Amino acid sequence: MANDKHGGQERRPSPEALLARAEREDRGKLKIFLGAAPGVGKTYEMLISARARHADRTDVVIGIVETHGRKETEALVHGLETVARTSIDYKGQLLDEMDIDAILERRPALALVDELAHTNAPGSRHPKRYLDVLELLANGIDVYTTLNIQHVESLNDIVAQITRIRVRETVPDSIIDRADDIEIIDITPQDLIKRMQDGKVYVPKTARRAIENYFSPGNLTALRELALRRTAQRVDDQLLHHMQAHAISGPWAAGERILVCLDHGRNGATLVRYARRQADRLRAPWTVIHMETSRSAYLADADKDRLAACMRLAEQLGADTVTLPASNVSRELIAYAGANNFNHLIVGKSDRPRWREWYDGSITHDLIRNSGTISVHVMSGGGEEVAPRGVRTAKAANRIKPKDYVFSLAFVSVAVVTGILLDQALNVQNLALVFLMGVLASAVRGGLGPGLFASFLGAFAFNFFFLEPRYTLTIRDPESVVALLFFLGTALVASNLAAAVQRQATAARQRARTTEDLYLFSRKLAGTGTLDDVLWATAYQIASMLKVRVVILLPEDGTIAVRAGYPPDDTLVDADIAAARWAWEHDRPAGRAADTLPGAKRLYLPLRTGRGAIGVVGLDNDRQGPLLNSDQQRLFDALADQAALAIERIQLVADVDRARLAAETDRLRTALLTSISHDLKTPLAAILGSAGTIKDFGAGLSEDAKDELLTTVIEESERLNRFIANLLDMTRIGSGAMTLNTAPHFVGDIVGSALARAAKITADHRVETAIPDDLPMVKVDPVLLEQVLFNLIDNAAKYAPDGTTIRIEADGDAGLVRLRVTDEGPGVPPGDLERIFDSFYRVSKIDHVTAGTGLGLSICRGFIEAMGGSITAENRLDDAGALFQISLPKAPASKGTTA
Length: 899
Known about the structure:
The chain is an alpha/beta fold and 899 residues long. The strands form seven sheets. A six-stranded parallel β-sheet has the order 5-4-8-9-3-10, with helices on both faces. Strands 13-12-11-14-15 form a five-stranded parallel β-sheet, sandwiched between helices. The chain has a five-stranded antiparallel β-sheet with strand order 17-16-20-19-18, sandwiched between helices. Helix 17 runs antiparallel to helix 18. The radius of gyration is 41 Å and the shape is elongated.
């Protein structure tokens, strides 16, 4: 392959692109048939492509394909090998899923997997079908699959906004990004609507509903545009990787990409905003780049702050930001734009005087001259700047280090001694090289200042010790004057170059150290799950990297309060409290060295995200005056941005939990009110009716009638008493106020007590027990376990017909004692098995069943779990009826006893 030349440099393939290409070669190839909506023909086209591969003798199997009863699709399936599906039992129903193990064992060259976004049945190896596809690819099997655009994760909100329907099954964008090929299946909205009206997508009734809601022409047009643009984005990425892997000079104008070059000039904000408008107009990705030169270290603090503010503005407006070192800005900027396929380059008009352009050259002119097919936009700008921070910056430490100058003196002294030793062997011009080595060593060791000092000191020593007449500052030979001047000039240039290299190396080491610290900090934040951990990690990181004391304040009950600090400190004086509150309320810095309330001890800076301020950070140290220099302020911004996002993440999770709890509370409150209104009113009405009848008509009633009415009063009173007891028990469980009185007990005794208490309830049923005499004892609260058994017996008697058997049996092994209560009723509907223990949840009643409160089984679970056990419900396999099993740990053996 021929090597292209660009800007005088030989282009080589990108190592990252070659590595990605090598990784793709080790796995199977993924092709996605992408559609804007269901019914466009994705599965049909996938099968046609698969049959073409099959005709070329490719080993093709169908992992799973949904034909939806369409005859033309079923015809294409015929003749292709289909891997049998596996059946998974879920809540009593058998669900068919793709058998990934069978496909891996079969190892075809190509597998067809329909509906990539499908959610697998619980119990499958992977929860999502796209994870099955990834496993097939990892094993070297090519995959054809189908996907609708509404299932792409990053487009989920946009699709919901367009269609008013939130799609729950989504696929990460990374799946599309790793696809080797995407084929978009596109038909016009009118054609798709006609297909639906003809019954080729849904049955007629469903089709009419779909056309009126989801499949309106406007919705389909918007979804179609999303599909086309997402595919174009992936194709653009593939083109860029191809160019980088083959060292092809760009750009290729297959799509629009915008690159903005920023420096420290006053028109940076104007460039960023103009680039954003251009990106919106062209619907193109855009990147902001800053080329860091050797002169960047000498920029004034105000220029550094302006540049950092413009880069932050670009990030807020959605740009990617890049900072690269450069020795020749125009050449390396063009090389970067070509390598990354940018075809629009936006730069600012230079405001330097003409003599500077004549001396240093014009970057703008060089860009235009060497841009090739890249369009260069030169913006004049109006001096528009980002709003100032409102905080004075500390002067960067720039102390002169005497040690470096001592080393320079030592290097020159060594050069003098070396020159004296070589004086007889070398002529005077060659001795100058010895002093030049001393100058270079000084510049590398100490930087520009010591290098210049060594240059002038070396020139003086060279003249004094080696130029005739020696040991004087007089120079007799004109050639020696020229030699001395050239030596001094060479020394100055060499020291400047060596110092520049030393500055770049120091800056690179500092940048690498800072980048590593930020990376470790981001990993630490990603691994934290509580707000206190995030706040402590943030306080410690800021304190250690900026060498300051830190307090973090978050809003609390309408004000702002200290939540963390390093070193630990939660005391604030009135001036600091006022400054912190002002910073929080106005989202602006306040306090020490700020424009507002500068009398405070600390400087308070807001923590903010895209949603606004979420907290305040207070900083202070033992020095007087401003706290942070420009570099430290930029480092603080990076730390604060990461911390704010982590805090917001924790708060969003807490908000979701609170919303879920509020919804559950509302549900329970509604259920409680409904239950009370019914379950209190019914027995009270029966009691009042019976008592009123006895009072008003007692003289005319027979003794049997009176006994029946009094029995009704007693039974309904007992029913009312059980209901109130259940409410009290649930209150104890919910409030955590339940006190256990546990001790070793024999289960048979507690079962007998519960049956005696439930004698009236079970009067119309047969009760059988099977409790072995040698059953191990359990450590329980006998009152609570008796209540659990009573509730289970009551539940069994309520749902099982009269004359049937209620059986209680127990056994023990593996450290557990198991109690089972079975009945011969209708059993529990499969869909209710997981919810039957929820508070106020009632299974659908049959005719003879008396309404319950929906609390009995919930109380059973609460009591059993409080005693360290578990309770489950299932349907009997040997006969009709329900089976409730209680598992309790055995009581530990007493000292002195043996098994």
